[in-house]
């Protein structure tokens, strides 16, 4: 048996996308209900992620990635919120943003700060798509895109230079 045959397959892009969407939803729920992270993780893992909701079957998520995102945002929320606050124009506070947008920004910022295994461009593209799903036709996806590009140029300058050269 080769080492290749023993390795677990890498989670699919779709599973990671589903994990990101689930993380945004869990972070939203935690904020609006004051639910703790472990309770939210359990609820989403047991009852929501990969479930059939209103006739639509949601993709199976990368559960480890989902849990890492939620826990990572909670553990580093002060750092994340400070990074986001530094991107907002004077007079705007993070708390003034829509709760769903704030959850998406926090999850994406966590990935940009702490998950160097994920290219910055992937992080930005994925969360812009999530914002488009929640805010169809609104300005929020463009706002999120601008904030994430600013953060990526701060935390992942080399990664962004590589993307710009392509």
What labels describe this entry?
two-stranded antiparallel sheet; globular; mainly alpha; 166 residues; N-utilizing Substance Protein B Homolog, Chain A; single chain
CATH class: Mainly Alpha
Looking at CATH, the homologous superfamily is NusB-like
Q: Might you state the CATH topology name?
A: N-utilizing Substance Protein B Homolog, Chain A
Separation of the first and last Cα atoms? 39 Å
| Count of helical stretches | 9
- Indicate the proportion of strand residues: under 5%
- Helical percent range? 55-70%
Rg (CA only): 16 Å
Please describe the biggest sheet, giving its number of strands, its sense, and whether it closes into a barrel.
Answer: 2 strands, antiparallel
Named at the architecture level, the CATH assignment is Orthogonal Bundle
Low-pLDDT windows of residues = 162-166
Strand order of the largest sheet: 1-2
Order of helices and strands: HHHEEHHHHHH
Walk me through the structure.
This protein has one domain: N-utilizing Substance Protein B Homolog, Chain A. Helices cover 69% and strands 2% of the residues. It has 9 helices and 2 strands; from the N terminus they run αααββαααααα. The chain has helices spanning 3-6, 13-33, 37-48, 63-75, 77-85, 99-114, 120-134, 140-155, 157-165; strands spanning 52-53, 56-57. Strands 1-2 form a two-stranded antiparallel sheet. Strand 1 and strand 2 form a beta hairpin. Helix 2 packs across helix 3 (37-48), helix 2 packs across helix 4 and helix 4 (63-75) crosses helix 6 (99-114). Residues 162-166 have low confidence and may be disordered.
